[in-house]
């Protein structure tokens, strides 16, 4: 039985304006519902971020990193692994990014001037892993649905905050282009009705191990109802 569960998509109040759950609360929530680890994927500086625009790049990255840092420290206390990632955005098109670190962000102060295609190419050049989050999400502020099947590694085929219709279209997208599949809770709140993640037979060592395990097909995706 695969008993080590991991969340791939979650937001903290420290990094994401749209979140009402702090890094400490988030970690304890996932500890309570039996997860072994969680990826912090706060909205990057071109998304719904808490980080002010009128600061030097280094200061902005340090502030952005706070959500992960606080979650990581809490994870050490309570016994849950916390991995670093982010959600890069362009007008409602969101790309989850894993496998790179704060030093990489500090080295690339031009990130916000890149097109999505340029961003994906740069991430891949340095060994990062890209997941198209909720690709068929509909909202008033999203002017069009953009798909990049040759530029991402995987598709989020289930997002707990999206409709069945949107999630089904995401699954079709992944199937049609034979892309890897992931699921996520996209947690923003202190209480959730559903969680979604990936589970393994063994404990994941770090984010690189997570990526390689996903590529090797070792994990099983799951969606669970949460009893409050």
TrEMBL record:
GO MF: 5'-3' DNA exonuclease activity; 5'-3' RNA exonuclease activity
PANTHER family: EXONUCLEASE (PTHR42924), POLYMERASE_HISTIDINOL PHOSPHATASE N-TERMINAL DOMAIN-CONTAINING PROTEIN (PTHR42924:SF3)
Protein name, entry field: PHP domain-containing protein
Organism: Halanaerobium saccharolyticum
């Amino acid at each position: 039985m695969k008993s080590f569960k991991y969340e791939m998509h979650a937001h903290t109040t420290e990094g994401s304006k749209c979140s009402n759950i702090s890094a400490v609360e988030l970690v304890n929530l996932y500890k309570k519902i039996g997860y072994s680890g969680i990826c912090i994927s706060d909205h990057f500086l071109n998304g719904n971020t808490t980080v002010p625009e009128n600061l030097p790049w280094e200061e902005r990255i340090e502030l952005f990193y706070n959500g992960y840092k606080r979650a990581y420290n809490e994870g050490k206390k309570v016994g849950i692994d916390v991995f670093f990632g982010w959600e890069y955005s362009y007008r409602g098109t969101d790309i989850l990014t894993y496998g790179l670190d704060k030093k990489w962000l500090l080295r690339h102060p031009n990130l916000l001037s890149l097109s999505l295609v340029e961003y994906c190419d740069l991430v891949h050049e340095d060994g990062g892993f890209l997941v198209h989050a909720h690709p068929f999400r509909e909202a008033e502020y999203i002017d069009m649905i953009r798909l990049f099947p040759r530029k991402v590694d995987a598709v989020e085929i289930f997002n707990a905050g999206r409709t069945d219709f949107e999630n089904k279209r995401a699954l079709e997208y992944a199937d049609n282009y034979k892309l890897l599949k992931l699921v996520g809770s996209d947690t923003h709140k202190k209480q959730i009705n559903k969680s979604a993640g990936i589970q393994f037979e063994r404990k994941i060592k770090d984010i690189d191990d997570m990526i390689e395990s996903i590529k090797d097909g070792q994990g099983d995706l799951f969606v669970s109802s949460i009893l409050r």
